[in-house]
Specification:
The complex is a heterodimer of chains A (99) and B (668). By secondary structure, chain A is an all-alpha fold. Chain A has helices at 3-23, 27-52, 56-84. Chain A has one domain: Helix Hairpins (Orthogonal Bundle), CATH 1.10.287. The mean pLDDT of chain A is 90. Chain B folds into two domains: 3-586, no CATH class; 593-667. Chain B has 668 residues and is mainly α. Chain B is built from 26 helices and two strands. The chains are: A mainly alpha (99), B mainly alpha (668).
Chain lengths: 99, 668
Amino acid sequence: MAVEWYLVLSALLFATGAAGVLLRRSPLVVLLCLELMLNAGNLALLAFARSTGTEDGHVFALVVIVVAACEVVVGLGLIVAMFRRRLPLNVDELRGLKG
Amino acid sequence: MSATAFGWLILLFPLAGSILIGLGHRRWPAKTAGWIGTAAIGLAFAAAIGAFLSLLGEPAEERQLTSSAWDYATSVGLDIQLGILVDPLSVVMCLVVTGVSTLIHLYSTAYMVSDKGYARFFSYLNFFVFSMLLLVLAGNFVLLIVGWAFVGFASYALISFWYRRGTATAAGMKAFVINVVGDIGLVLAAFLIFREVGAFEYLTVFEESREHFETNEGSIVAICLLLLVGAFAKSAQIPFHTWLPDAMEGPTPVSALIHAATMVTAGVYLIARAHPLFELAPTAADIAAFVGLATLIVAATIALVVTDLKRIIAYSTMSQIGYMIVGVSIGAYTAGIFHLMTHAFFKALLFMAAGSVIGAMAGNQNIDRMSGFRRAMPFTSLALIVGGLALAGFPLMSGFFSKDEILVFAAERGGMYWIFAIGGYAAAFLTAFYAFRIGFRVVLGEPCEEAKEVERGGLAHGEHENPATGEKEDTEVGFPGSEHHIAERAPGMKIAMGVLAMLSIVAGFIQLPGVTAGMEHFLEGSFEESELFHIVPSEGSAYTGLLIGGLMAFAGIGVAYLVYVARPGLTGRLRSRMEGVHGFLQRKWYFDEAIDFLVYRPAIKLGQFSNNVIERVVVDGIVSVTAGAVREAGLLVRGAQSGFVRAYALLVLGGFAALALYFLVVSS
């Protein structure tokens, strides 16, 4: 199968994730959409790796997976902390950084 | 023992003495401080004699010995050592400094005995002697600067010794500030020397500079002029002289030691030490000689009208140092150093005698109040007369030979240098006059109340008041203690004055023209490469000079006799006849006012300008403009910080999309 199909799928996944990050207000869903975007990237990396026959893409994909795992740990931790302190679970209402 | 080992010992004893007294004075009885101090300087004197003898044992051309204890710093081309130079010049200086200091310490053990700061006094005094010896023995310009600054500090501490007296602390500060101006000159000179020659050791610098510099080249003249700033400030030459008369606020032994015999001669020593540089810069040497001439005449005229006993002697010191500066600047090195030595003897003697008289006057220093001490204090009177005769250059006294040797040398060089001979002889007349203004006023005449009190076996007890301002002062801190002391009743003072009186009479004979010339032979080791050193006036002109000098002394003493003894009313008439001149001299040629106007006021104005304009307007302006700009810029961009996380995410994505588009467009 040609590499283009994989790339189109990757682009679709990425767009879905981005749209989710921009449109949804629940922090949990935003986190899920971020994961989606990362995995879209992974898919593109692996597709290119297969089509060129080198291992570099695999290595990168592994690194991205590690980063994603870390990010999930921190993100979920934050959400749990917010929940425990009874803060509103809505990204629009977390505006403490307003200048 | 080698000469350099003796050199280190000379330095060690006074330093050890100072520290020992400073640390031990709380535990030991007060009197020990005086004996430790005197013994330390006495040992240093013995070491100086040792150095002298061991130099005599060397052949004349090998009498410049150096020794280094350790390196302060060695790096690219820079080598600063804690090194000393023992050569005939420094050994002569050491002998004079330690010899006179020993006697003055001995004098102080009696004179200062009632002072509550007795131990502090001796600790300072020993520290001063150490600093002076460091200055003299230093083997390079860096160590010279160290000694130079130490001496300035010691002088400050001793002038302000009676620290509850406002005028004393003010005088100390004045001396210190003017001395620091000199220090700056010296430091800049050292920098310049290093830049040009690349070394600090005297011998290297002198060796190199002979090849490095052309005669009268700009940089060597600049070096010499900067050295002169240091020399003039230390030696109280115009225009840096105003601190010396004020320094008389210190105890009398301090005046005798620091402000007559040793510290103020440092400038003379510096010029003699750096003579290879000055011979390469004849312009600078001539400037020094003219400043010396101006000082010797100006100071001699002021000494005619001042009424404070110690200040008359202080102006006389300035004047005599003017002679020395003229001497070493025109190349009469032997004569200059010779006069330095004889002056140390008779001026210390005069100050000691003055201290004794002031003791009898219960602290009053006004010579108008003094008269007729000859029966009350025969020994002090004799000392005063012997010192006065030596100062006046009376035939066969020490000052007679040394002063005239300088002036004859000036005449021998001829041309422009005749001015120095003529001016010097004219001032010699004034010198004789004011020397006997003191002598006749104090010794002869009807005994004053205080003199009668001494004759009755008592001692006047005046109110303790500041001799300069007449203010009452507390005696908690000295003002030589609750009691005064006079030489007649204190063996220590008597011995010191007796030895100095003998030296004042006989010291001239070590350098008789064409007969002994001992000074010249010994100093040859330091000056052998100098051409000027080998100019020796013929015996005929030397004796003609002595004849003129003797006549001047007789004339001055005669006129003083006429004015103060034979016709007592004459001074008042002269004063009213020449009101203007008298006032001018009494205001000391308006030097204090001129410095006030030229330096102090502009400095205050500059300070006010800096505060009002540079600080308030310029600096504060820059700061507030910067702060304002930052605040405005912050207001501009703060709108972007909405706090909407999703808006930030949109900006990130949009930014990446724009970048991606840009690269796509560029690559296609």
